[in-house]
Amino acid sequence: MGLVGYRLSLDGVILRCSVCGAAYEPDPWLFFCPRCGGVFDVVLEEPRVTRGFRGRGVWRYSELIPVKTQPVTMNEGGTPLIPVPRLAEESGVGAELYVKYEGANPTGSFKDRGMTVAVSLARALGVRRAAAASTGNTAASAAAYTARAGIGLTLVLPAGKVAKGKLGQSILHGARILEVEGGFDEALSVVVESVKRYGYYPLNSFNAWRLEGQKTIAFEVYEEIGVPDYVIVPVGNGGNISAIWKGFKELLEAGLIDKLPRMIGVQAAGAAPLADAFLQGLDHPLFKDHPETRATAIRIGKPINWAKAMRAVRESGGVFVKVSDEEIMKAQRMLARLEGIGAEPAGAAGAAALARLAAQGLLEKGERAVIVVTGHALKDPEAMMEAPTETLHAGSVEEAVKLLGLH
Ligand SMILES: Cc1ncc(COP(=O)(O)O)c(C=O)c1O
Ligand SMILES: [Zn+2]
Predict the structure, then answer these.
(1) How many CB atoms lie within 10 A of CB 279?
(2) What is the rounded distance in angstroms from the CA atom of residue 137 to the CA atom of residue 140?
(3) Cα–Cα distance, 140 to 151 (Å, whole number)
(4) How far is the CA of 253 from the centre of ligand 2 (A)?
(5) How far is CA 273 from the centre of its chain?
(6) What number does the ligand 1 atom closest to the CA of 344 have?
(7) Which ligand is the nearest neighbour of the Cα of 274?
(8) 3: pLDDT strictly greater than 60
(9) Whose CA is closest to atom 12 on ligand 1?
(10) Model pLDDT for residues 253-300, shown as the tens digit of each residue
(11) Which partner from 198, 222, 235, 284 sits 20 to 30 angstroms from 267, CA to CA?
(12) Residue 44 CA to ligand 2 centre (angstroms)
């Protein structure tokens, strides 16, 4: 074992810089544009579906996933699309609403869709050590998938800023953890250096191959309900919203659909470099040095995929919105108590934007919108425990029975 070779093909794609547009051969070790430093898109030269979609989960769409190798998989993807009429009504939204529940992935977030592709590629390349910076969910997912692949993993985490569930997963799956003072942006710069200096294989979303897995969210939505009018996505680094947009565009190029959704990017008010720029009509992000939000998964001030995320929103005729932490926590409870859906705070950011979007004249009757709930409530136990509740305590069975009679 360990010396087993896996066949690998990366044919039919080019790497195109998301900032300056320069094109390169698909070198799996090239992550930043030699000309301008921008991150890449993996561009399929000719997206085509001839065999049809087969099997389940992410790899059901293997015709459109350019990493051809034996996958490291746990049947990630195939998550439920759930109608949420009570949430729509309570939020004052006329549109028909659905939640794409990414908490149902193996490690509880959408990251697994990307990780199955990135780790499969890493294994086929013979990688021995990988690295990832993370607000937590990438860490949990990378830890699980590298464990499965037998690849060593170092996680670079912002000290004291990772939700308990995610840190617990990273520990459980056996990753080495390097805590760094500062936030996610500092942790990410450590990983970038580790790639350049020591040849660690990066599992962050600046690795564009990972996003090839995440675009399958679009494929699943399309197969279930066709093309919605809106897709609402919480945005941190901007990888996921750009991946979902790319997925819909590939369906269009392949001739399977004839319209595209509008992409709505949602950021937390204290960590909104893209939404701030958008609201001021700028095409460049307003990077933020000390981002703050209770939704730690999107506590990111310098999104590395900023150019792609901006393009997804602009090209699609969508918008960026900011929501407060109070709105996020309220939305988490609404999802939980009106619809039974458990989201971590960042996962509830899309739902938190509903009222604001309706006030802007969006999400009208006769339209359909999909809210991507990106992570499971169990990820952040402390956030769950902050919800108001009625807890009674009884010292004995007799007293407990009596208490029930009073209510
Ligand atoms: C739960 C959750 N939601 C949203 C995001 C943001 O995704 P992206 O960084 O691709 O914009 C993350 C990223 O860590 C996340 O963990
Ligand atoms: Zn470039």
Answers:
(1) 14
(2) 5
(3) 14
(4) 24
(5) 17
(6) 1
(7) 1
(8) no
(9) 297
(10) 999 999 999 999 999 999 999 999 999 999 899 999 999 999 999 999
(11) 222
(12) 18
Looking at residue 337, its amino acid is R
- Residue spans of beta strands (DSSP E) within 162-223: 176-180, 201-202
What are 115's two structure tokens?
């990780």
- Give the closest residue to 318 by CA, choosing from 192, 186, 228: 228
Instruction: State the DSSP string of 38-71.
Output: PBEEEEESS---SS---SSSGGGGGGG---BS--
Please list every protein residue whose CB sits less than 6 Å from any atom of ligand 1.
Answer: 109, 135, 137-138, 205, 234-240, 297-298, 344, 346-347, 374-375
User: In angstroms, what is the span from residue 42 Cα to ligand 2's centroid?
Assistant: 13
Confidence of residue 196 (pLDDT cuts 50, 70, 90): very high
According to DSSP, the residues that pair with 231 across neighbouring strands are 263, 370
The structure tokens 């509830």 sit at: 348
Question: For the chain, first and last CA: distance in Å?
Answer: 63
C-alpha 47/C-alpha 65 separation (Å) is: 9
- Give, using CA atoms, the residue closest to atom 14 of ligand 1: 297
- Closest Cα partner for 107 from 60, 51, 168, 62? 168
* Dist. CA 261 → ligand 1 center (Å): 20
Ligand closest in space to the Cα of 236: 1
Tell me, in angstroms, the distance from the centre of ligand 2 to residue 37's CA. 6
Phi, psi (rounded to 5 degrees) for 356: -65, -40
Integer Cα distance of 316 and 362 in angstroms: 14
Give every CB contact of residue 295 below 8 A, 6+ residues apart in sequence: 234, 268, 271, 325, 328, 344, 345, 346, 348, 349
Phi, psi of 282 (to 5 degrees): -95, 155
Rg of the chain over all Cα atoms, to the nearest angstrom? 21
Q: Is residue 407's pLDDT more than 80?
A: no
- How buried is residue 16: exposed, middle or buried, by Cβ count under 10 Å (0-12/13-18/19+)? middle
Q: Give the Cα separation of 362 and 358 in Å (integer).
A: 5
104 Cα: distance to centroid of ligand 2 (angstroms): 36
The conformational region for residue 174 under phi > 0 = left, psi -120 to 50 = alpha, else beta, is left
Length of the chain as a residue count: 407
Which of 237, 245, 320 to mutate for ligand 1's pocket (most ligand atoms within 8 Å of CB)? 237
**Atom nearest to 214 CA in ligand 1:** 10
